[in-house]
Design a protein that fits this description.
It is a single chain. The protein has a 3-stranded mixed sheet with strand order 1-2-3. The protein has 4 helices and 3 strands, in the order H-E-E-H-H-E-H. The chain is an alpha+beta fold. Helix 1 packs across helix 3 (about 70-80). It has a single domain (about 5-110), classed as K homology (KH) domain (GMP Synthetase, Chain A, domain 3). It is about 50% helix and about 20% strand. It is globular, with a radius of gyration of 15 Å.
Length: about 110
């Protein structure tokens, strides 16, 4: 069960990461990266961000590149939320495949 503080920080990080990825993917035509959910550990030191990538064929490659550049992303995030948060959590990115899973279920039901 997440606390109210965890939820607020997760929403803040999700909003800022979404804006960062939107700005970065403008130079890559045909690619869309969105942050579907962010989960914060109870001590606020770790954040798990789940990314939805379109097209899904490039998802592994894009998430691998994002995880390789996590220090730069955390630094930029720190600059954006420096007045709201004292400590910027360590970031880890994962693929959110819930839409693909739902589509697969729909195909099986048809």
């Amino acid at each position: 069960m997440e606390t109210t503080r965890q939820n607020k920080i997760a929403r803040l990080i999700q909003k800022e990461l979404s804006e960062m990825f939107l700005a970065q993917t403008k130079s890559m035509p045909g690619v869309l990266v969105s942050v579907s959910v962010v989960r914060i550990s109870p001590d606020m030191s770790y954040a798990r961000a789940y990314l939805s990538v379109f097209p899904s064929e490039k998802a592994d490659e894009i998430v691998k590149n994002i995880n390789a550049n996590v220090k730069a992303i955390r630094f930029e995030l720190g600059g954006r939320v420096r007045h709201q948060l004292r400590i910027i959590p360590e970031l880890k990115f994962f693929i959110d495949d819930s839409l693909d899973y739902a589509e697969k279920i729909d195909q099986l039901l048809k």
